[in-house]
Write a structure and sequence with these properties.
The complex is a heterodimer of chains A (114) and B (112).
Chain A lengths: L3 E4 L2 E4 L5 E7 L5 E7 L5 E9 L2 E4 L6 E3 L9 E3 L8 E8 L9 E2 L3 E5 L1
Parallel strand pairs in A: 2-11
Antiparallel strand pairs in A: 1-3, 3-8, 4-5, 4-9, 5-6, 7-8, 9-10, 9-11
Chain B lengths: L4 E3 L2 E5 L4 E6 L4 E9 L5 E8 L4 E4 L2 E6 L4 E6 L8 E9 L7 E2 L3 E6 L1
Parallel strand pairs in B: 2-11
Antiparallel strand pairs in B: 1-3, 3-8, 4-5, 4-9, 6-7, 7-8, 9-10, 9-11
Classes of the chains: A mainly beta (114), B mainly beta (112).
Amino acid sequence: DGGITQSPKYLFRKEGQNVTLSCEQNLNHDAMYWYRQDPGQGLRLIYYSQIVNDFQKGDIAEGYSVSREKKESFPLTVTSAQKNPTAFYLCASSIGAGLNTEAFFGQGTRLTVV
Amino acid sequence: SQQGEEDPQALSIQEGENATMNCSYKTSINNLQWYRQNSGRGLVHLILIRSNEREKHSGRLRVTLDTSKKSSSLLITASRAADTASYFCATAPTSGTYKYIFGTGTRLKVLA
């Protein structure tokens, strides 16, 4: 099945720990994105990547880091510098920097700080 | 923030009624898209309307776009309980690097 897979579905982090959220796609998409969603809120862009080995900061990149070493993978690390990391994290991909393409989303990772 | 706004924030209707939700955005766009999110899940793409289009239909969905007012509306006709979800608009701006900017969403509840 083609699609975009996020893991784990639920993640618990202790204060001061770094954690990495996985996002893998087999859609052969060039572009990938990470969004954060807080309860009852919209999506805010953390990082995005339009091509392998390149990525750009979104609106709320502080406290997060990413890598794009492979086309299929775009992992997100939530560092200890992120003051309020408890949220729902969504990964998405799209064909590329085309002007009229849709985004495909994973099922999300719910991160909780304990 | 470039984030758009949607209204109403929440909408509750009876099954069979129509549901209308609105989206306003701030920048010039190439297209506007609507997505649906069931509780605790990822988003699913519903429909895309290009900046040179004014109206588009897909099944029970009707989308309009007014670029002069920087606004769009999504109409769901003959709603069903299964339409209960949050609905988000997303814009692809003309300036800068290609990325999707999402609105704040409308939570729709359809009562059976």
